[in-house]
Amino acid sequence: MISDAIPLSTSDASHVSFADGYTFHVRGGQITAPGQPCPCGALEPVHQITSYREAYPQAQLSLTDVCNMGCTYCSFRDRVHADGKPVTIPLETVVQGLRTHRERLVEENARYSRIDFGLAGETMLVRHMHDTVQDLVAENLADSPVAVVWAGPMVTNATLSMTSELAEQLGPPQDISLDGPRDVHDRVRFYTGDRGGTYDHVRSVLDQVLARHPDMGVSAVLTAYCTDFVAIFRHLFEDVGARNIYMKPVNATHDKDYALNAKTLPAFRQGYTGLVEHILAQPPEGILARLLALNSEDFFMRFFYRVKDRAAQVYRCGAGKSGTYLDTNGNLYPCAHFIGKSGWHIGHASTGVEDTERRKYLDLVVDQRDECSSCPSRYVCGGGCYYQAVLTNGDITKPDGVKCDLIRFLTDLSIRLVVTLRELHPEVLDALPSPYGLTADSLASSPESAYLPAARLDTTVDDQPMSIPLAGPGRVRGGLANPAGLAVTLARRAEGLAVRLELGDTPDAVQAVRVRLQPVGESVFTLHDLAAGQWPGERYLWCTRDGAWWLAAPDMRFRRVPHPDPTWEDAHDVRLSWEADHLELLLPLPEPFASDEGLGVNVFGDFTDGGWTALTLHEPFAVLGPNAKGPLHLSGPEAPGRPAAAGVNGRMPVELTPLGRWAGLQGNTC
Fold first, then answer.
1. Which InterPro entries does the protein's record reference (predicted)?
2. What kind and span of H or E run contains 583?
3. What percent of the chain has pLDDT over 70?
């Protein structure tokens, strides 16, 4: 059993060591196999952050405190009317909050932002306000630095969307709450006024939404009432068919019988152990499917991915440091969970966040906290939830010790899961999502700096075509198909970019080809864009045996949630020939290039099992030099013939450092 190794582990501030010789190195994030030397080095810039910027500064506008449900663990219900506040937010307070948020966006020089229409109450009860608030967002952020703002309701209990017309208005990136099977869900999520559980109504909506959006988010709160996390996960994955699942332990004071506390901690540990062992009991394709179905911000998976990808968190989240969390009376709070909690506001929309209050949260760097500085999980955790610290200790600087124990256990469980996959199912570990890598120059640069990868496409020395393999160990994401012989040849001609893809030994396994053309250069494509996963000015081509289409990328600055379905337009300017054993593409290139730096190019192959590969996997594209002509060769960390990088954690080339170790922007995971 995977958990057998955990009680035999020893840990200190620098290492977690297991009896079988595997070691997790706290500072660098590496996992080394038995007998390998210790790679620990000096502190990196990511360990020495004392300021905070995130890729998507968020505003949470609590439009209403009203809810049609009376969930057992709801902390907002007791805050209705607290401090004499109105139940529904006045529009003038919304305007004040947006102006405060604009000031924060200017201060952070933010390129992107997200505006959420509330968490304290059920925002669908005030649908009539949504259009007006959308207009206010556009009006009050018009002169902010952001390039794109997404706004709308992000979370719903779904019970007010039961008609097909209303259900069609839901979709990613929203999520719907479903706490597991009917008996588990209805015990804690029920209507007010003794009107019974909500499971059947939620399922009726969720089934409709998942039929259109299989990636719709489904979130579950884990309580001590049911620590059979396997049963909860299997219901969501197998019965409901969810493929974007987020499960998280309840936030509660320790005296609640449903809480995570010293008495229930062993059951929570066993619940997570059982979940991991259930996943590992599947065949390789089943392991991969279940791991992919868990959202990367799921409470266990966040630690797993941070361990796998060597990410470093010196803060728990952006609470108190970034974003705008607005109550109906104009009070500002550190994060969404604090909204309405008397005595814990950190400012007012009319005056902004108080500098002294913000400084309290900026000082919560893990290495400067007595409770955290020697913890082996500190860079995986970031210091623990500040809200849960207040619930248990009344102090944001004193994390919940029981939650800390669970996090240390989950860190060890994550390490062992990575080791087990590397030993028994390396193809599964390699197929999981991985971050892009940064060069040393990018690692030392600010978010506003132009991004350029190490990968280059230049004219071949002998003017002969160069076949670039796309298959092989570690070359596939999202699936296990890995067709031998799959290779791409590229050339720049007068008419554009010529792509020839040899389909390899199993040509029917390839179902589509995609091409990314990304302008690069100063103020065109920045490190901030890369970290945010945004592609300004991108041209994106999708090809199947039936034809080729360009993505009609949205160009609106203010965009509504949920996201609209993508729109594809016939690529009449593309020549496509798909034969039995190969395909050929000729697509026009934007002229002139956006800058003297060239043009970002990547070619993707999509497989029938849902997997994919690409010309460059560890960088988003290779730069096609502005003077490159004729047959092209790939240079850089992923060039043919370069030694394959293979560590226990992953296969990041040695010339690159995972994006999660960049000090420029921090992640904000609730």
1. 4Fe4S-binding_SPASM_dom, Aldolase_TIM, rSAM, rSAM_sf, Sulphatase_maturase_rSAM
2. strand 582-587
3. 99
User: Measured between alpha carbons, how far is 8 from 24 in angstroms, rounded to an integer?
Assistant: 14
State the sign of the Cα–Cα–Cα–Cα dihedral 2, 298, 385, 419. positive
| For the chain, counts of helices (H) and of strands (E) | 16, 32
> In this structure, what DSSP letter does residue 54 have?
B
Check the CA dihedral 338-340-343-346 and report its sign.
positive
Dist. CA 109–CA 106, nearest whole Å = 5
Rounded to whole angstroms, the Cα distance separating 348 from 341 reads: 14
Read off the amino acid at residue 77.
R
State the amino acid at position 445 in one-letter form: S
Find all residues with CB under 8 Å of 283, minimum gap 6, and list them.
none
Cβ–Cβ < 8 Å for 25, 82: no
> Is residue 21 helix, strand or coil?
coil
- Cα angle 62, 67, 71 (rounded to 5 degrees) comes to 115
| Helices 91-108 and 127-140: angle between axes, nearest 10 degrees | 40
Spatial distance between the Cα atoms of 584 and 497, rounded to a whole number of angstroms: 11
Q: Could you give the domains of the chain?
A: 1-48 (no CATH), 58-154+321-363 (3.20.20.70), 157-250 (no CATH), 283-315+370-446 (no CATH), 483-524+532-617 (2.60.40)
* Per-residue pLDDT, 9: 75
Q: How confident is the model at residue 587 (pLDDT cuts 50, 70, 90)?
A: very high
Tokens in use for 190? Answer: 């029920």
- β partners of residue 633: 458
* pTM attached to this predicted model: 0.97
Q: Are 644 and 473 in contact (CB under 8 A)?
A: yes
CA distance 590 to 624: 12
- The tokens describing 75, both together, are 């902390």
- Contact criterion met (CB below 8 Å) for 178 and 240: yes
- Please report which confidence band the pLDDT of residue 662 belongs to, taking 50, 70 and 90 as the band edges: very high
Contact at 8 Å (CB) between 272 and 410? yes
CA distance between the termini of the chain: 30
d(C-alpha 628, C-alpha 311), whole Å: 36
Distance separating alpha carbons of residues 626 and 635, to the nearest angstrom: 15
DSSP 8-state secondary structure symbol assigned to residue 235: I
Q: 47 Cβ partners below 8 Å, 6+ apart?
A: 27, 312, 314, 367, 379
Give the number of other CB atoms < 10 A from CB of residue 646: 14
